[in-house]
Amino acid sequence: MATKSKSRNQYKKMTMSPKEYQSFAKTMEPPRSILGNCLKAFVFGGAICVIGQAIQEMFVHLMGMSQEAASNPTVATLILISVILTSLGVYDKIAQWAGAGSAVPVTGFANSMCSAALEHRSEGLVLGVGGNMFKLAGSVIVYGTVAAFFVGIAHLILGTGGQ
Amino acid sequence: MIFFWAFVVGGAICVLGQLMFDVLKLTPAHTMSTLVVIGAIVDGFDLYEPLVKFAGAGATVPITSFGNALVHGALTELHDQGWIGVISGIFKVTSAGISAAIIFSFLAALVVRPKG
């Protein structure tokens, strides 16, 4: 018994307390340049929005849609582009550079769905592709829907009744 | 001019996301969910539509517009159909985005062999 507790004490000495470990791990983390990352995200995210705007103008001027009606096909086109880039393995490379700049636009939403679908393709079309497609995007849909519900209820209670 | 503001506003929303990554150390899923909820709340105060008018795709392309569209559908149906609209209207506007993402992703999974 005595030896056991002794060895346990030794063992304890060899490991670090969680606090020590955390400060140790922090010294090992690659330095994150927040400003640089933000700049990349700004440029890349802005660029995707400019592309979106260009696609939207195209729908407005070539197909005679109103600005509002054109936003749906615009989003669909961006999603198609994102899915193609994901399938070619390009989008993930961009994402490593652009960080939130590629994740926050709707293209990042499509990327998360498409990459989940591709990743689980080997598990079959139903359980793999069907079951895992919303693995990452699901949280966005769930929280968006719940938030929209509560906002709707708030408007209902306050009697503002929507637009 | 709309291109300029689309760039600035869209970029700014992405910076917000990047700050959540780097400063708050949130995972991408947490960040996206938070942004969607922010978009929904902003539209609840009727402030997202002016932003769309001002910045065009700068406001409609980031994921915040997904929250905005969910609320927009709910409120429009609430206006037209009464209380049940809160439930039935939520996905009315976002259908294009979600359907397109599902269909294209599925087709991609049929055709493409995953890399890596």
From TrEMBL, chain A:
InterPro entries reported for this sequence: Spore_V_AC, SpoVA
Where would you find the membrane-spanning parts of this chain?
34-55, 75-91, 138-158
Keyword match Transmembrane: yes
- Pfam families recorded: SpoVAC_SpoVAEB
List the protein's name. Answer: Stage V sporulation protein AC
Alphabetic keyword roster: Membrane, Transmembrane, Transmembrane helix
Q: From what superkingdom does this record's organism come? A: Bacteria
Automatic annotation (TrEMBL), chain B:
Query: Which PANTHER family does the entry link to?
Result: STAGE V SPORULATION PROTEIN AC-RELATED, STAGE V SPORULATION PROTEIN AEB
Question: Which UniProt keywords are given for this protein, alphabetically ordered?
Answer: Membrane, Transmembrane, Transmembrane helix
Name recorded for this polypeptide? Stage V sporulation protein AE
A Pfam entry, by short name: SpoVAC_SpoVAEB
User: RNA-binding as a keyword?
Assistant: no
- Tell me which InterPro entries the record gives: Spore_V_AE, SpoVA
What residue ranges are annotated as transmembrane? Answer: 52-71, 83-112
Q: Does the keyword Transmembrane helix apply?
A: yes
Give the organism's phylogenetic lineage. Answer: Bacteria, Bacillati, Bacillota, Bacilli, Bacillales
